[in-house]
Structures are given as C-alpha cells and as structure tokens.
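Re: [ENG-882] Designed sequences occasionally contain unexpected residues at chain ends

Forwarding the minimal case from QA. Structure tokens:
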C-alpha cells in the first residue's frame, strides 16, 4: 500500500486495470495519488474491488466523490479486459459516473516517459506467435500514439520512430521475443513499464477528459485488436 506524492490531476479520477498479469487501482484526489498493485494472474476478479476500497479509504472519500473512472480498455488478456470493463460498468452505473478507456500500451509508454523516455515501443505478448504493439512519443510529457496500435507477428514490426535517437522498450512482448530488442541498433528496456499501472493511466485519463474523450458508461468499449472476440454488454444494454 503506497501513497504517491507525484504531481496528480485536479480531478478525482479512479483508474482500474486488469488487462495483463498485473492488477492495479489508483486514485488521484487533491493532487495526491493513492495506488495498489499486485502481480496476481487469475486473481484479478478477487483483487480489484478490495484495491478500489483501499485507495478510496486512503484518500478518505467515497465512490460518489469521484469525478471520472478510467479503465484499461486493452489490448491484453481477453479475460482480463472483460473483468476490467465489467467492474467499471458496475461502479460507474451505481453512481452515474463518466468513464474513459485508456490503452494498456499507452499506459506503459506513459510510465516510460515519466522515467525520462522520449520515444517508446510498447509490446505485450499476444500469444499465438504475435504481439500487441504501438509506438509512442512524448508530447508535453504525454504518451502520444504514432500511427496505430497493431497485433502482428514480431517480425512484422516496422518502426516509424527516429531510429537515430534512443528508443525505449516496455512490455512483456520483449520477454517473449527478445530479438525485438535488437531493432534500430538496440532498444533500451524500461523495467518499470513492464506492465500497465493504473497510476500512469490516471495521467492519460486527465488529458483525455480535457480533450472530450470521456463518455457515459453505456459507451464503454474494450479494445481487443483481434477480431475473434466481441464484447457482450450487460443485459438490458443495446
């Protein structure tokens, strides 16, 4: 259990993520960040709500005091994405709170940027001989996507970043396919950003909210990247 003193947003944002092996919840309130994180595969559905309760308790507020819920929208584990979006639905519906989906790849890139990176290649092991990946640059300290997020074979990755400058690698894709670290003359690994962490998701949520990207819970949308899985909304939702 930690209390972060890093600069936080003026909004009270609850951020949730269960899209990879890591499970995390964070709350920004009064420019403080409260967070919980655990590497607990197959335990996300049991861990997340207690984490939410903990960060709210640390800040001494109730869910009704939250302005916005940010959720890990994917890509990542299909089951993990479903858990995150379903729990977000339940929390947001109960308090009529707006929501905003945040990319897991962007969240890892944001962590790397907070650590000093300017260019980031984020990649998550997608199994089946593929990776989910995206390229990001720091724009005013915010992870900004270059082109689009993709699922592909590792050998199909083509960088659009400036290969004459340091490119930071983050995510489990580089554990599964270490040959990717040899791209562009060698990438620098940021171990801090191996998994998405909700406290960095909150930073992106603030910026997204300012850009008008938050929605009602009825418009919640997970992102799988693979077309073999479709989202099924709760009963009664179209």
């Amino acid at each position: 259990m930690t209390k972060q003193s890093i600069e936080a947003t003026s909004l009270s944002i609850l951020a949730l993520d269960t899209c990879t092996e890591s499970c995390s919840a964070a709350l920004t309130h009064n420019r403080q960040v409260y967070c919980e994180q655990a590497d607990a595969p197959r335990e996300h559905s049991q861990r997340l709500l207690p984490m939410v309760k903990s960060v709210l308790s640390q800040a001494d507020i109730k869910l009704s005091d939250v302005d916005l819920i940010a959720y890990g929208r994917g890509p990542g584990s299909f089951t993990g994405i479903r858990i995150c979006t379903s729990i977000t639905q339940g929390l947001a519906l109960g308090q009529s709170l707006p929501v905003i989906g945040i990319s897991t790849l962007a969240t890892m890139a944001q962590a790397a940027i907070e650590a000093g990176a300017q260019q980031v290649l984020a990649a998550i092991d997608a199994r089946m001989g593929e990776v989910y990946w995206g390229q990001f640059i720091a724009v005013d300290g915010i992870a900004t996507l270059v082109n689009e997020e993709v699922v592909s074979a590792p050998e199909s990755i083509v960088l659009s970043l400036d290969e004459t400058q340091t490119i930071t690698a983050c995510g489990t894709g580089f554990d599964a396919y270490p040959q990717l670290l040899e791209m562009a003359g060698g990438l620098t690994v940021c171990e801090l950003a191996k998994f998405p962490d909700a406290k960095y998701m909150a930073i992106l949520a603030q910026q997204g909210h300012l850009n008008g990207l938050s929605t009602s819970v009825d418009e919640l949308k997970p992102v799988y990247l693979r077309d073999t899985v479709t989202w099924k909304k709760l009963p009664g939702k179209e």
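QA comment: On inspection the terminal residues look reasonable. The first strand starts at residue 2 and ends at 4. Proposing we downgrade this to a documentation issue.
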